[in-house]
Amino acid sequence: MARYIGPKSRIARRFGEAIFGPDKVLSKKNYAPGQHGNNRRKKTSEYGLMLAEKQKAKYTYGVLERQFRNLFEKATTKSGVTGEILLQLLESRLDNVVFRLGIAPTRAAARQLVSHKHIVVDGKVVNIPSYSVQPGQIVAVREKAKSLEVIEASLAGFNHSKYPWIEWDENVKGGKFLHMPERADIPENIKEQMIVELYSK
At the N or C end, where does the chain have fewer CB atoms within 10 A? Predict the structure, then answer.
């Protein structure tokens, strides 16, 4: 699947947030990219704000437009708050669960681990980053990949009690996806209602 491989600091500066993780450039240049980025005073329209929120969510979770739209349409078929369900579907993606478990330092790194067959779900290798993890399933590092330096470095000192919807098991170097997260437990600064309003136009 195609994915964004351009300069991440530029995207983070556009939104004014470190959406890809700690960013040294953003800490020094906390304004929009481009020649006139520090002098922009143009007021963004309501539509522009909603579009920016959708773009932020797509970049944060590493999802392109078609996949994102499919997830939104799936969210609309479920009972409950559509925006919250959309975020839950994004959070249950395999690459995101690997990232939340601390097995990888970023979602991009988690996606690579999954694609390279280093991750198992309920003991079976799954190499599809968009795979939807279901409550009760166990996501873990494949036996022969447990000594990988990138995994060991990421797990070192990671706080596994950070997310209440996943339960870490050191013995299997993985964790159980207990349930879909509540909105209050999802740390991403995304105004999901604006995304719902955008797609509803």
Answer: C
Report the candidate in 99, 101, 98, 78 with the shortest Cα–Cα distance to residue 88: 78
Q: How far apart are CA 86 and CA 81, in angstroms?
A: 9
Is residue 139 a contact partner of residue 129, using CB atoms and an 8 Å limit? no
Best CA proximity match to 114, nearest among 99, 136, 100 = 99
pLDDT digits (tens, 9 = 90+) for 39-93: 555 677 899 899 999 999 999 999 999 999 999 999 999 999 999 999 999 999 9
* In a shared domain, residues 124 and 51: no
pTM: 0.83
- Establish if 1 belongs to a structural domain: no
Q: Looking at the domain assignment, is residue 2 inside a domain?
A: no
